[in-house]
Amino acid sequence: MAKSRSAYSIPGKIGKIERHIIVVWVDNEAGVLARIAGLFSGRGYNIESLAVAEVDKKKHISRITIVTEGTPQVIEQINLQLKKLVPVHKVADFRRGEKDILFRELALFKILGNKKKIEKVKKICKKFNPVILDKTNNSVVIQVTALRAEIDKLALDLKSLGLISTSRTGAVAMTKGQKIFN
Amino acid sequence: MPKLLSGAEIVFKALEDQKVEYIFGYPGGAVLPIYDELKNHKSIKHILARHEQGAGHSAEGYARSSGKPGVLLVTSGPGATNAVTALTDAYMDSIPLVCISGQVPTHLIGTDAFQECDTTGITRPCTKHNWLVKDVNDLSRILHLAFEVATTGRPGPVLVDIPKDIQFKKGKYKFFKNTLKKKLNGKTTHKISNSELDKFIDLMKKSSKPIFYTGGGVINSGPEASKYLRELISLTGFPITSTLQGLGAYPGDDPQFLGMLGMHGTYEANNAMHDCDLMINIGARFDDRITGKVDEFSPGSKKIHVDIDPSSIGKNIKVDLAIVSDVTELLKSLIKRFKEKNKNFVNSNKQKTSKWWEQIEKWREKKSLNFINSEKVIKPQHAVQRLYELTKNQDTFITTEVGQHQMWAAQHYKFNKPNRWMTSGGLGTMGYGLPAAIGVQIANPGKLVVDIAGEASVLMTMQEMSTAVQYRLPIKIFILNNEYMGMVRQWQELLHEKNYSESYTAALPDFVKLAESYGCIGIRAKTPNELDEKIKEMINIDKPVIFDCVVDKAENCFPMIPSGKPHNQMILGPEEEKEISDEGKILV
């Protein structure tokens, strides 16, 4: 058997992988999400999470927040390629951990258990703005908002306390202070 | 109250306002209302292809040779899917195409109706943008926007999908101009600053081993760009090399021109790229067939990159000075600035670069495009050289298919003007050349148009000969017939222990008889002795011709960089073949 042979060159050195949050303002028209998602899949970029909703009803502008990973070169390409799309108005790009930016994810947890267990659950969730959305004698649906890693940890901790269902959004982002994204 | 027009009428009104003269297409159920309207618009001529892919490549050839956008009209389902190859080809090679496709009526969309497919879904990754028209009152805006998107910034294909009921419905028409809310790709928003120009000039002044590396962006920017490029090269005295798509922007027979670079580029061009201390990339995109192994690509050089598409800069190769600009704009301001500040540049520079030129001359002495000619069989390189010699005194347009013949054409045919060379570079579409030649001939009536072809490629779109005959387009299909998929055979010989797996075509048609059956002329040349005479015969026939040039079956295309090797490690000819390492084989 001949050795594996390809028509293309071998990959060069790979740079350091960074996690970025990319915010895209788009016209809310048919197929726009497919265009954005297709750009990522077609060019081999990663989507870790994605959150999208219309933010301007009058102008029909949607705001898409994408969490992605890549080398600085790939992240730059993602930005430039997004800007080329016709329905894209602007693109903002942040590194995970930047000081001036707020990130939040929302999660819903359904937990089965007696009162004692549910009290324990509430205590664990205390730091993460818990809201009880539904309660019966032996179940609770609790909403928390936190950072991704915090929710990851929470879900792990709740497992032993009767967690049976988890629903999570992708991250959304906003700048601190008076500044807005440009 | 403005007069209401049907969707089909709006399509033609928009095409008229965009000054479209030709559309390439193929009718079908979902576009019948548009075809019905054709008779009322005498300024627009429809060219009936034999397959939608053929229509698409014809539109590409038309666009590439005329500088105008090509327009394509196809039906729903298979009509649209057949056009996908041509759209992708145009996307890769930055060719402005506007494809109008029919779609099943709105109320049937999503029901798996007859000849339904998700056209906008399928073509999303191979167009700059596409639209599904759901309201006839949006139609005129979308059509004009489509032309704008296709032709501005880095050009490319767009598609407008029009359901059949929308073609019947009445709506308002308006001529929209410059509707884009933002400027695409920074073509007009970016103003070139003097500090950028000064940095550019400063890098040129400091360099003792410079090289210009130019690409299809120069051609796309229009004939002015080639004019300025020539002026700049003569002002600086620097050597210049070109990509496949850039050929013709600078005269191929000029002493400052080092020939094409890349995998099958010349020894001098590739070595100069590797050893230079300043690389000036104008309108090229550091494609993998150019760079070879990225980590070892031109290690000691500063790099300047001028491109209209910001995402092309820094994609493959990091550069020291990036300028987002149209080539014409940049060259114009650069030359102006250069002349103001550097009156004596050429003289002082001549000394500085004299050693560099000496080195280049040494590389040139290798004569890397040489081949061992024969008196018994026609060598394909010889055939291209003879074709060049016998056609160079008239304004000739060359298209090609994809493979060895394409590389030999690029190596041995010397282009002097832009827009004379149409080839599928990015996608590498076999079957491109014949339909492209049809489009070129339509845009350039009375000019000599030759498709330098391989027998395998040309069979992929051979049906378009029928189109050429129908419209009396005297295109010349010059087939270098070696009975093999030559480039596949070459790689199998060099890299796969001569296991010629499925690369030989048994049962080829008799091309002379095939020509006759299409109603055109067939000519065959078998020996070098008769070649010139037969080529002359071909040129003098005012009808489509299929020329079956029977060439050496085993000839390989050299020089060649086994990719994954840096540019200074080329294979020059058969005697060096053995030197490819196992590692190199993986990389080609």
Secondary structure layout:
The complex is a heterodimer of chains A (182) and B (588).
Chain A: E1 18-27, H1 32-42, E2 49-56, E3 61-70, H2 72-84, E4 88-95, E5 101-112, H3 115-125, E6 131-136, E7 139-146, H4 148-158, E8 163-168, E9 172-175
Antiparallel strand pairs in A: 1-3, 1-4, 2-3, 5-7, 5-8, 5-9, 6-7
Chain B: E1 5-6, H1 7-17, E2 22-25, H2 32-37, E3 45-48, H3 52-66, E4 70-74, H4 78-92, E5 97-103, H5 119-123, E6 129-132, H6 139-151, E7 157-163, H7 164-168, E8 170-171, H8 194-206, E9 210-214, H9 216-220, H10 223-236, E10 240-242, E11 257-260, H11 267-275, E12 278-282, H12 288-291, E13 302-307, E14 321-324, H13 327-341, H14 345-364, H15 380-391, E15 396-400, H16 404-412, E16 421-422, H17 433-443, E17 448-454, H18 455-459, H19 465-470, E18 476-481, H20 486-495, H21 511-518, E19 521-525, H22 528-540, E20 545-550, H23 582-587
Helix pairs in contact in B: 1-6, 3-4, 3-17, 8-13, 10-13, 11-14, 15-16, 15-22
Features:
A: 182 residues, alpha+beta, 5-stranded antiparallel sheet, 4-stranded antiparallel sheet, 4 helices, B: 588 residues, alpha/beta, Rossmann fold, 6-stranded parallel sheet, 16% strand
